[in-house]
């Protein structure tokens, strides 16, 4: 009876070990895939800011020069 319990416990430990190794392998593959997709996404972006981004930057600026460029619009959200 004790020998059977020891063998079953050993079998259970072996099964958990095998499952853990499989999960580790899959998680490493998924991590590499996600890392690659993030790098590819940032690599594919242009280096020069888009014109719309520059306009948004000018709109959120509170200095007088930027408001003169945009025709008198001045942001009062942050004051």
TrEMBL record:
State the superkingdom. Eukaryota
Q: Where are the transmembrane segments?
A: none
Q: Which UniProt keywords apply?
A: Signal
Q: Does the keyword Signal apply?
A: yes
GO CC annotations?
plasma membrane
Indicate whether Signal appears among the record's keywords. yes
Q: Which GO terms describe its molecular function?
A: ligand-gated calcium channel activity
**InterPro entries in alphabetical order:** TRPM (IPR050927)
Signal peptide limits: 1-19
- Which named protein is this? Ion transport domain-containing protein
Organism field: Bugula neritina (Brown bryozoan)
């Amino acid at each position: 009876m004790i020998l059977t319990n020891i063998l079953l416990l050993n079998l259970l430990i072996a099964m958990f070990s095998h499952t853990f190794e499989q999960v580790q392998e899959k998680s490493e593959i998924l991590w590499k895939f996600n890392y690659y997709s993030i790098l590819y996404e940032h690599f594919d972006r242009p280096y020069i800011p888009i014109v719309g981004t520059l306009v948004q930057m000018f709109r959120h600026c509170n200095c007088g020069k930027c408001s003169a460029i945009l025709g008198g619009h001045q942001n009062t959200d942050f004051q």
